[in-house]
Amino acid sequence: MNWLLAVIQTMLFVALAPLLSGWLKWCKCHLQNRKAPSLLQPYRNLLKLTRKQPVVAEHASWIFTKSPYIVFSAMVLAASVVPLIAVDLPSAASADVIVLVGFFAFARFFLALAGLDIGTAFGGMGSSREMTISSLAEPAMLMAVFTLTMTASTTNLSLAIEHVLHEGLVLRPSFVFAMFALILVAIAETGRIPVDNPATHLELTMIHEAMILEYSGRHLALIEWASQLKLMLYGVLIANIFLPWGIAQGFSAQALSYGLLTIIGKLGVLAILLAISETLVAKMRLFRVQEYLSFAYLLGLLGMLSHIILEASR
Amino acid sequence: MVLILAYAAVLFSFASGILALLTNQRPRLETLGQKYLARFPKHQRCRNMLNDGFQESRYPILLRQSTFVLLGLSGLLALSAGLGVLIGQQVLTDQIPLGLPWLPWHVRFDGLSGFFFLIIGIAVIAISLYGPGYVQAYQEEKHPFAVLGLFTGLFVAGMLLVLLADDAFFFMIAWELMSVASYFLVAFQHENSANRRAAFLYLLMAEVGALAIILSFGVLASFSDGLTFDALRHANLSSTWASIAFVLALLGFGMKAGIVPIHVWLPEAHPVAPSHISALMSGVMLKVAVYGLIRFCFDLLGDVHWQWGVVLLGLGTLSALGGILYAMMQPNLKRLLAYSSVENIGIIFMVLGLAMIFMANGFPQLAALGLLAALFHAFNHALFKNLLFLGAGILQHQTHSLDIDSMGGLIKRMPQTSFLFLIGCMSISSLPLFNGFVSEWLAFQTALQVNVLDNGVLRSLIPVAAAALALTAALAAACFVKVFGLIFLGLPRSRNSEKAQEVEDKGMLLALKLLAGLCFFFGIFPSLIINLLNNVAKQLLGLSLPNDTALSWMWLAPVSAQKASYSPLLVLISVLIATGISFWFLRRNPETKTMRRSEAWDCGFGGLNARMQYSSSAFTMPFRRIFAKVWLIDEQITKDMQGAQDLDVAAIHYHLQVQDHSWPRLYQPIANAINQLARQVGRIQTGNIRVYLGYSFVTLILLLWVVSL
Q: B649 in helix, strand or coil?
């Protein structure tokens, strides 16, 4: 029963991811005085892409054609570990938060290889930049996550969230720092403004798009879906770790539906905030990203230190 | 019984060395054989076989193969001996009547030695599969097989003896055997002056390190009666002397292990040796140094101080970060791998430091976790670094180059090698499902238990070190994306890589397959090794992980199931399900199932050629800019001008040289100081015979005076 619930939660996660990016686009369009596409547009795009025959470059090896499946599966696996509507699901025990970071690394490894596979300059550029940014983002992210895991003294996400729920509403300076660090990392890792611009092609500053330029058809669909999943994963992490209230602790139908509603509400608000920040902030130069990410790391470090100095129970 | 296996392993590796010496003795052996067989005229078949074997063309091949078979048997015996002592949880002791008359060689074979026997065993088996195909390329006149085979055998025997030694004297003899034998292997291709220089540097630093180890044993020995490890264990040291012994041991073993800043010999020496030897040196010899340090600190010194742990943690962090950052900038594949060994040794030292800190603060259970993580990482590093070095050997064999920038597109031409190399790259980048990830995960788990410590400085220092570990892992992933992407993907960058073929020798591929298979297997079932390691921790620290932690074959929960758990098998199954469903779902339509091949799109620019691809220096450019202070970078761009008034650019030359800081900062001053000193000493050497006679006279008078006192 519990395993069934875990599978259902994962499927829900995968199914809702395009909706989140549709909602984000809708908010952004309205903020920028443009006419918004329907909320279901991402689904239509994915469906359209899966129906097309993929065109693959002549030099492409199996790395190029298999990477989309690997990337997508890694993201689905990550989604199965993160509690969406209920804690205490058995799937959360199979991998903890460090493994979650490992899943992201796995997906990135293959995406970067796929970028190098065709032998175009754009692909190499994208891979090189993606690996640079991620290698700076990963320590910052782990620093933020460690603050949480040291407070809860577990790296199991589900148990950590339960711990936060148990403690009740306590204002922890460490959590404030860690949350901001995680938000900055999330923006960098999901390729949003000001680090990368998801809406442009053919810009010499592009990162994520440069790697996947050569993809088409179902391969492109999988990669697009994977990046939508990644956005949602970070959203859920921020929402459920730092503001876990509303998540279902039992498996009754009422608790679950309440959990679903609250997470949709939380993600909706987060998306609005992201849309506002993307409208207000301009994209920054590539070599300022390091300063941005060092700042994120610094916030994570401050969170950690304030946990050790102010909050540790001795 | 187990001890006999261990002895047999040593003897077989000696025997393989001796056998290799017979390369040039074919005529003599033949006459000997004929004479012997003449006594038994009936054995016609034996004679035929003998004649067959002594044919001029077949003899060297046969000899080479049998040398490696002996070496492989030695590996197999070492493996079974190691497993035997680990499973049996015994401590075996013995004495061999060799060495000094009042000090026979003491032998002790316990869990820790057994575990390193296991590592050496696996590596040597892989080498023996790989060797026959690889050494074929060497010409007998220039690079005699006798030399290579002899010193390979001695090298392996030396390493095994180090692990068996139970007194300081025997230990140093075995240690020197290992060092000197490997010196000859580094100097094997000595026609190149750079190789001779590298070999000399290696020998120099190995001997300085050995001196430090001798001194550290000396410190211990002066507080105890005797040189046996048993006596040293009971030495009663003040904490100052213990710290001095620790620093000396750290210098000695650290120099062999290659921690920053005493690592400079490593990236020079490892690349110039033949590839299977580089694999042994990088994958196994460095581990023997780690073994020495563990044996010295946790076993002989016993009472560890947390300050030592902090030193190890700091040096480990420095090595891990420095190693991978330097590795990233190397265009030569084997140099890159050598630097990446520095990184991995750094990680091992970090976790050992954590173990020491927990041990000194009275948390032996967490110390056991740290030790376990360190040993497991040592094991994993031996597997994937051997795999990568052997893969590099194949690449060199097939493309006649080690320059990453001259390769490309090899995945089409060498499908099997590329797949196996990819597994190595994924393991070393610590991606989930592979063994490198598990040990790194354990390292993080150890670091996250920091809450139990009282010391506030330590509690804030260790998470920062953990973040540095995360940075290291991410940089390693970037580095190996570069390695795999530039070597195997894209378009070929040179004629040699365009013409490259898959290697034909089955044994070479088999060695790679064995190692890659183990990398994957222990990534999915890490508990097998961890249970063995638990026994080592029990013997060494007196405590192991609690039994009630779910150390089952499927779950990995080192502290307790509530704190952290990881089940690689479940992850693997879910990945397969997710991939399977998406694969089946998206390819169900027969019309779109096949992919259409066409030219690369490249944003519609067209006219793609191999020179437009990202190169190694282009790929690492962002890192060079961000971490600019780490290297000494010499970057020059010159333009050739032409046309009227020299305004048109005809060609652009780009020159990039990236150097290690430790040379000019640390070694050059030392070398200068020694030269200075030598010059001062040289002043008394006037070259005038009367002055020398005067010196002799004064010395004589002085001695007479001393005697008469």
A: strand
